[in-house]
Amino acid sequence: MSDTPNLRIPGPTPVPPDILEAVAHPMVNHRGREFAALISRVAERLKDWFQTSNDVLILSASGTGGLESAVVSTLSPRDRVLSVSIGAFGERFAAIADTYGAEVIPLQYEWGQAARAEDVRQALAEHPDVKAVLVTHNETSTGVTNPLEEIARAIRSQESGVRSQGPSRASGRTDGPLVLVDAVSSLGAIPFEADGWGLDVVVTGSQKGWMVPPGLAFVSMSERAWRAYENAKMPRFYLDLGRHRDALPKGQTPWTPAMSIFFGLDVALERMAEEGAERIFTRHASMGRMVREGVKAFGLELLCQDERYASDTVTAIKCPEGVEVSALRNTMEDEYNVVIAGGQGKLQGKIFRIGHLGLVEEEDIRETLAALEQTLAKLGFAVRAAR
Ligand SMILES: *Cc1c(COP(=O)(O)O)cnc(C)c1O
């Protein structure tokens, strides 16, 4: 057992030694040439992971700040937004929109389920004036990945409806509802296509799939989103994406950035390019499978019933009858140096979660499953013969 804990929570994720070292880089002028080159380099590389030809803006904020920037940069008070929510982070996205005065129309699912494209299509048909749809790609609180491509297609299909109604044709535009995506715990780890799937604002955070510490949010905006920006009236200053867009060609950010994280990100993106998207996605798929098969073999149940939507970055597991989640987590940490997460919101005390995104190899999962098996036995759960 090494000193560094096996950090199996869905973010912050472990940071490898070479990236930790990069984070300790001495400060330079954040408006100087060296840092300008670095910003340009990482912003360019991020476009590959988003699969977008649009700029990727880098905010010094956690993922939630990125979500807030998406809302305030595209919407106005009293705009109607459809919130597709399958868990705690879906609720958070909706709460941000509500806080700034949007009229939120909820489309909620039982926690553990994925959203259905058909329901989204129907909700939009009932509310043709919806300005934006808020959707979580990977719901970290429940371990469920939404069929985002299908959902986005359902939203985009509204465009033809808007066009046939006339007013948008007059202006030469066919903009349907904007698709605002929380991709915080999916981007960089599982397949994703911002442009190909027709997504308008995409948000992710440095401490999830990217192997760097918390502190940066990455946000892309489509042309359609920039058109919405021009008319968006929600109050904004620090999180104004237009200010970030205008600073980027100079290799700058509007405010002093979290420079240390940028130094780490530079090395992380180099590492990720070396491994390659294909291999990174395959590794996450196989880690996800390994965790699911492992816990099921112990006789445990996944929160996500339909495994087609089970997340390859985080797994939520129902805590068995008679076992306390807190005792389970504490024992794993104290005796095996393995740190796992509990449940959020209404799932607190009911589930526990294992993170498997970013820096994760088979050995980490083997160690986690072994610790879990022994801990469960210690706490009196009859672990089914696994192998
Ligand atoms: C982690 C996470 C966030 C952002 O959380 P922060 O703590 O603000 O970084 C948002 N959405 C999802 C799905 C997440 O996993």
**Structural domains: how many:** 2
| Unreliable spans | 166-173
- Beta-strand content bin: 15-25%
- What small molecules does the structure contain? pyridoxal-5'-phosphate
If strands are numbered along the chain, what order do they take across the biggest sheet? Answer: 2-10-9-8-5-3-4
What fold name goes in the CATH topology slot of the largest domain?
Aspartate Aminotransferase, domain 2
Tally of individual helices:
14
Task: Summarize it.
With 387 residues, this protein is α/β, with parallel strands linked by helices. The protein is built from 14 helices and 13 strands.
Essential attributes:
2 domains; single chain; 13 strands; globular; 387 residues; alpha/beta; 14 helices; seven-stranded mixed sheet; four-stranded mixed sheet; binds pyridoxal-5'-phosphate; Aspartate Aminotransferase, domain 2; Aspartate Aminotransferase, domain 1
